[in-house]
Design goal:
It comes from Mycobacterium talmoniae. The chain is of the alpha/beta class and about 220 residues long. It has one domain: Vaccinia Virus protein VP39 (Rossmann fold). About 25% of the residues lie in helices and about 25% in strands. Strand 8 and strand 9 form a beta hairpin. The radius of gyration is 16 Å and the shape is globular.
Amino acid sequence: MSLSPPAFARDPATAAYYHQRAAEYDEWYLGQGLYRDRERPGWGAEVDHIVGLVAQLPAARTLDVACGSGFLTRHLRGVVVGADQSSAMVALTQRRLPRGVAIVADALALPFADHAFDRILTGHFYGHLPDQERAAFLAEARRLAGELIVIDSALRPGIEPEQWQERTLNDGSRHRVYKRYLTGRQLADELGGQVLFDGTWFVAAQARWDGAKGAAHTQSPC
């Protein structure tokens, strides 16, 4: 049954949450702060695996949509642009891209010409989008590039695949966020592509169209 989520990419409350979260965003990846005592067996190895997957992608003109703090963006090779709705996130990413650029932008109406990039990458953005916004994002990806790589959160036993979450930041503030969890096969099917990674914590999939050249470096789950 659908949870009837509101628009995510353009929701002011969601934007405020991620803007406020910018300085502590990496703590989720690194197991620090509020995440220090969480039981996440194999988490560190899978983070390393996802970083390695991104780092081994062939050099290309790549746009990282909803780049966040640039935790993954900085490992891309080639001409790299990061885009995020939060100026605080963009500032963090820009510091990590000495030879690239990060901009504030609407992920569903990106300010670039058709076919401006070879590849679109997005990490932990797709799984927050309700149906209409997923369709809009995928249309933008197809307009801008011949390849799309999506990294997101894996569906695990005991986890509802679609849910509302209450999230707490270091200052104690609480925020309500819509989230989907996916299997690698489900993500690949939604993109019309192939599974790149199907782990306990992370999934990744790639779609290519318009005769895009090259292939992502695929790896087995940790």
